Amino acid sequence: MKKKSIVLFSMFLLVAACAPKEGIEIRDAWIRSAPQGGNSALYFVIHNYSADDELVGVSTEVARAAEMHESSMVDDVMQMRMVESVPLASSEDVVFESGGLHVMLVGLKEEAKIGDMVDIVLHFKNSEDIRLQVPVREGAEEHGGHGG
Ligand SMILES: [Cu+2]
Asked: How far is CA 53 from CA 31, 56, 82, 86, 134, in A?
């Protein structure tokens, strides 16, 4: 009896491994720890298994606003601009990371403490919203208090 269930289980694993993936996958999401009233940033990697799409917004209850920003070096000065939407080409990774694209959490209503889980919703042009629970981790670096 026991043996039979193991066989069934491994067959299921095999099927799961072969099934083509679809939709949008988010991985390695984390939020930089920051005090109440301060700004924080959300980082993650998006992989789009479907047709071309766009990330058009992010929302959360923990901050006054969640804005998509892109940092870049201009004449040795770190600058950032607001981004209305981020193209997600089919079968490609888009990386939100410190010093590049990031989601800025502006005006935290509560402290983002290491180990906390924060509810985040990502909005897409074509796909359904994706809800995430994102862990808060220690920020490795700061850019002049910008947090991005
Ligand atoms: Cu920013």
From this structure: 24, 9, 19, 9, 22
